[in-house]
Amino acid sequence: MRTDHEKMLDDEFMTDEEKSIRRIEEAGIIRTPLQSRKLANERLRVAICELTDANITNVQVWLDKISTEDPAKALDIILRMLEFSVPKLSRVESQVTTNPGASNLGDLTVRDLQEMVTARRDSDRTHEGEAEDADFKDLL
């Protein structure tokens, strides 16, 4: 175990992340693979946000330079940047089995559709935990 004096000396030369890791190690906290992956993803998101924040004033200057030479390329860059601020809609395919009394989807009531969605969500939630556990069986 290190003394408090040694810890204070180390603090002067360590980054915040290194200090956090040291505190976790000293506390004896153990992370599961899923927790480690989530932490790594969160750190990556923070790093990207910091990089973006640091260069936000330069973006307009860079776009102006690019647009003088190639306006199409500048527009393409803007469209790619929009992907991070405007959510994309995704196509979802599903197979719907109707009740015996309904011959097609048009015959279903709103209540029937709500019950079908609720049943599907419940089914997905019960299988969700099984998939996460299966991903890490080889690591245990």
Descriptive notes:
This protein is an all-alpha fold. Helix 3 packs antiparallel against helix 4. Helices cover 69% and strands 0% of the residues. It contains five helices and no strands. The two termini are 29 Å apart. The longest helix is centred in the middle third of the chain and has 37 residues, at 33-69. It has helices at residues 4-13, 16-27, 33-69, 71-82, 110-135. The model has no long low-confidence stretch (mean pLDDT 75). It folds into two domains: 15-90, no CATH class; 91-131, no CATH class.
Give a short summary of the structure.
By secondary structure, the protein is mainly α. It is built from 5 helices and no strands.
Task: Lay out the secondary structure.
Elements: H1 4-13, H2 16-27, H3 33-69, H4 71-82, H5 110-135
